[in-house]
TrEMBL record, chain A:
<dbReference type="InterPro" id="IPR003593">
    <property type="entry name" value="AAA+_ATPase"/>
</dbReference>
<keyword id="KW-0029">Amino-acid transport</keyword>
<protein>
    <submittedName>
        <fullName>High-affinity branched-chain amino acid ABC transporter ATP-binding protein LivG</fullName>
    </submittedName>
</protein>
<feature type="domain" description="ABC transporter">
    <location>
        <begin position="6"/>
        <end position="254"/>
    </location>
</feature>
<dbReference type="InterPro" id="IPR027417">
    <property type="entry name" value="P-loop_NTPase"/>
</dbReference>
<dbReference type="GO" id="GO:0016887">
    <property type="term" value="F:ATP hydrolysis activity"/>
</dbReference>
<dbReference type="InterPro" id="IPR032823">
    <property type="entry name" value="BCA_ABC_TP_C"/>
</dbReference>
<dbReference type="InterPro" id="IPR003439">
    <property type="entry name" value="ABC_transporter-like_ATP-bd"/>
</dbReference>
<keyword id="KW-0813">Transport</keyword>
TrEMBL record, chain B:
<dbReference type="GO" id="GO:1903806">
    <property type="term" value="P:L-isoleucine import across plasma membrane"/>
</dbReference>
<dbReference type="Pfam" id="PF02653">
    <property type="entry name" value="BPD_transp_2"/>
</dbReference>
<feature type="transmembrane region" description="Helical">
    <location>
        <begin position="71"/>
        <end position="90"/>
    </location>
</feature>
<dbReference type="GO" id="GO:0015190">
    <property type="term" value="F:L-leucine transmembrane transporter activity"/>
</dbReference>
<dbReference type="GO" id="GO:0015808">
    <property type="term" value="P:L-alanine transport"/>
</dbReference>
<keyword id="KW-1003">Cell membrane</keyword>
<feature type="transmembrane region" description="Helical">
    <location>
        <begin position="155"/>
        <end position="175"/>
    </location>
</feature>
<feature type="transmembrane region" description="Helical">
    <location>
        <begin position="46"/>
        <end position="65"/>
    </location>
</feature>
<dbReference type="GO" id="GO:0015188">
    <property type="term" value="F:L-isoleucine transmembrane transporter activity"/>
</dbReference>
Amino acid sequence: MSDNLLDVSNLVMRFGGLLAVDGVNLQVKPRQIHSVIGPNGAGKTTVFNCISGFYTPTDGTIRYRGKAIHRMSGHRISLLGLVRTFQHVRLFASMTVIENLLVAQHRHLNTNYFAGLLKTPSYRRRQREAMDRAAHWLQQVDLLDFANREAGNLSYGQQRRLEIARCMVTEPGLLMLDEPAAGLNPRETAELDQLIMRLRDEQDIAVLLIEHDMGLVMGISDHITVINQGAPLADGPPDQIRANPAVIKAYLGES
Amino acid sequence: MTETSLYVLQQLINGLTIGSTYALIAIGYTMVYGIIGMINFAHGEVYMIGTYTAFITIIGLFTMGVSSLPVVLLLALMTAIIISSTYGYAIERVAYRPLRGGPRLIPLITAIGMSIFLQNYIRLAQGSRDLAMPALISGGIEFGDPDVFEVSLSWMQLIIWGVTLASMTALALFISRSRLGRACRACAQDLKMANLLGIDTNRIIALTFVIGAALAAIAGVMLGLYYGTINPYIGFMAGLKAFTAAVLGGIGSIPGAMLGGLILGITEAMTAAFFPSEYKDVVAFSLLVLILLFRPTGLLGKPEVEKV
């Protein structure tokens, strides 16, 4: 067995007559930041949707820790430790910040009904742990002061950070971020940069990243996969990608 | 007090009684709509099944010689809740879940089909004639001037208020405090995201059907005892009224369903007070038309935010 955390091979996704993804391969190694880049409409998000169980791929296999997940439903995949964010913020806007983090730990609190009714010691302990974990991550993303605000009232940058915290309380093995820097100002982007690197270094996780901000991508990625028009174009460390003529052509067009 | 004001007070009491049962049934419509965006038109039949279950239980207990009123009432309520919830769960599992994700029209048609099926199934099993529900609770208090107008408040009405209040409080606490309630709210806001965060959304959807059915069963038992007669068709009108109440308060909003039920009940009672009582349905459904024309999101409903 390979030492890859996530192994996507020959992924194909077809919507009717449209071939959105055509033979994409991805190998994400543990404790790496792996970026997926490509021009608009290249099929990056479709790849994400296939991995996270939003779509069932037409063909190809997706393995997470050696286990085939491409036919599983979203909640099963997330239970395995694979969580994601979306291009646009998808928080539970009318719930409070802390509730957003508690709801994400639903499965950790999954004791039976009677334990909940009787408030048994193990139930209480789990409740307390969930609360501690939520508080810990609020501190990590610098939102502790906003715990009881409604999530929808936070600033855009704060909402982005809360989304990452909401992923992290589920204690994932692989965090998938879909354009996390979209709409952030340069300072916020720099903070995000730091946060993602800290996640890799301090938590034992890998990050799969879709991003358009090339500064961010080149600065923090350990490995980059380039997709163009649904098909893989290049794969390698940032320096190699930067120098790859095919990539430059795809981004800038023929000269 | 003058005759008119006493008369209005009496109608207010009656309206509040009917209104609270509308509210209980309306919860089932609004919770299901809140999460999967469909109108469960078979919900009225679940209410009707609750009434029949209570009837059968009461008659059965009487023939067995059980005559203690609290025991009979409690058992009738429990069996009605259990049987109706089972129906609620089964309807979702059999008729709606396989069709989820299809165009919106399809579950709507299945729901209507389910409603017709259940109505006729009860008609065949129990007969289509009116059955007389034994009057378990009679009497009440009367006040006002015996020479002018006497206002009566029956024990049954007080029980309906009490049980409704208790059920609503329990529901509100469940939704706002419990882990499952939190998951319900999350699903109502973003079903797919909740699923991706590891919540088994199928279970939560089934749960809302069960909760709605249980509340409808409670309403069924109490209205059956209050009116005294039941037949297989009572679910249709009760369902329509509760649906109106849910839309009036803002479909998808639980406090809205509570408020809508009360407003509808009181409006009906007031109409019956000052116009021929046949007009009460006309006014109730005119209210539905007006709310859809001028405030389609209902009184407490939030305007739907366009998802980008």
